[in-house]
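TICKET: design request
STATUS: open
ATTACHED STRUCTURE:
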């Protein structure tokens, strides 16, 4: 974005410098704001439910660092824990006691993770879990669901072919056809397509990976018995079931989606909240599967900065703050926000549907909440872009895409929620 004139702001000048350094001026594509047709912003600090841009403007924040900031930004206890850990040095090159403490806290909340390993990102956790799944089953095919995002792993950056249970085609340049062909892409919330895929590929599917609550095509709750069908079908065929809980883990409850819906997957991937905003990922599951990981078993995976003390400290402090009463209050706040936004849309005669699971929600610009990724993609993206811009102008920072979740934090109080609804009422009338 080339900005001219003598009155250029600090943010405009910083963005121009960024564009000379990084592709699109950003280090992750959604930060470019291109899908909402607005210039990007540059954020300098955050506190509680607020963030400030480099020109000093304050916003009520619903990006929440894309999920980790469940306590709000710069929570004092988390900051103190990171500072204390930093005084002891950063990466030390050997196992740190904080790794044990955070690992035990995670396993206590998610008993399906009998053994686990930390990584530096959610993508890395998913990549490692897939490798493990293939090694454990001796199979090669992967099965995922349209609209599900599991990081920028080659085998999962794919799009569906022409049929319900066909093999996939590359969804990104640089992904070989042969790699994409090892992935089946099915509609989310469609158990019959799962049954068909396993019937057409008996004994060939290594893993089924699913966001138990779809949250990367907007928030879509699992239909009744969908997750149960995945569990039963994979178990009967000898395939493994992986829950990608990078977003839902510790977000929709202490035990994530698997506790909320009563399903025990074979493997789970985590990220975001378990690091309290610091870089982190983790994967784990059944002990017999995790014993295949080096140095015990033949599946190699390593990470120089895995289990970084600062990430461990932030995660420990964050999880310690996530008490049952705070989860209940967060869920109630999100429910009130969703109902108020729906009422504002109805008053403005707008075709808007709000989908919510816990403190995740999406305002879909379509008449009804979608059941799968294909339905979500029929949303009016131009209408969302206008809504996004009108909210931004009123000091409310939403995800810059129709297909991202809003992340509500425990720092969002009645004042922030009321201001959000007031802004939405004006924006929807505009």
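STATUS: resolved
RESOLUTION: sequence designed for all positions
ATTACHED SEQUENCE:
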């Amino acid at each position: 974005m080339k900005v001219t004139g003598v009155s250029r702001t600090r943010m405009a000048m910083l963005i121009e410098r960024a564009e000379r350094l990084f592709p699109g001026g950003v280090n992750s594509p959604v930060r470019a704001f291109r899908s909402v047709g607005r210039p990007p912003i540059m954020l300098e600090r955050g506190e509680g439910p607020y963030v400030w841009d480099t020109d000093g403007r304050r916003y009520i924040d619903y990006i929440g660092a894309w999920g980790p900031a469940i306590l709000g930004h710069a929570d004092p206890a988390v900051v103190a824990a990171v500072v204390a850990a930093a005084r002891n040095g950063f990466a030390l090159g050997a196992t740190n006691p904080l790794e044990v403490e955070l690992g035990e806290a995670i396993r206590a909340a998610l008993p399906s993770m009998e053994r686990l390993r930390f990584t530096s990102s959610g993508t890395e956790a998913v990549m490692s879990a897939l490798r493990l799944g293939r090694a454990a089953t001796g199979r090669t095919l992967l099965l995922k669901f349209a609209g599900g995002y599991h990081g920028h792993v080659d085998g999962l950056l794919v799009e569906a072919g022409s049929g319900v249970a066909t093999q996939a085609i590359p969804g990104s340049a640089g992904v070989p056809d042969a790699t994409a062909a090892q992935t089946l892409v099915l509609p989310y919330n469609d158990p019959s397509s799962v049954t068909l895929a396993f019937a057409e590929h008996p004994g060939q599917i290594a893993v089924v990976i699913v966001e138990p609550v779809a949250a990367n095509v907007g928030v879509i709750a699992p239909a009744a018995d969908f997750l149960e069908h995945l569990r039963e079908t994979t178990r009967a065929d000898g395939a493994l079931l992986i829950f990608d809980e990078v977003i839902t883990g510790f977000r929709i409850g202490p035990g994530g989606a698997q506790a909320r819906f009563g399903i025990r997957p074979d493997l789970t991937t985590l990220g975001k909240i378990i690091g309290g905003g610091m870089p982190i990922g983790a994967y784990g599951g059944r002990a017999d599967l995790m014993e295949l990981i080096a140095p015990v078993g033949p599946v190699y995976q390593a990470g120089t900065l895995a289990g970084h003390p600062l990430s461990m400290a932030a995660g420990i402090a964050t999880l310690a703050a996530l008490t049952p009463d705070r989860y209940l209050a967060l869920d109630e706040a999100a429910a009130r926000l969703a109902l108020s936004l729906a009422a504002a849309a109805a008053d403005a005669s707008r075709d808007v549907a709000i989908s919510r699971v816990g403190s995740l929600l999406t305002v879909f610009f379509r008449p009804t909440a979608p059941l799968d990724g294909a339905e979500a993609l029929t949303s009016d993206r131009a209408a969302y872009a206008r809504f996004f811009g009108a909210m931004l102008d009123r000091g409310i920072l939403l995800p810059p895409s129709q297909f991202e979740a809003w992340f509500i934090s425990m720092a969002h109080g009645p004042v922030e929620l009321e201001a959000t609804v007031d802004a939405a009422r004006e924006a929807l009338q505009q």
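CLOSING REMARK: The longest strand covers residues 205-210. The radius of gyration is 22 Å.
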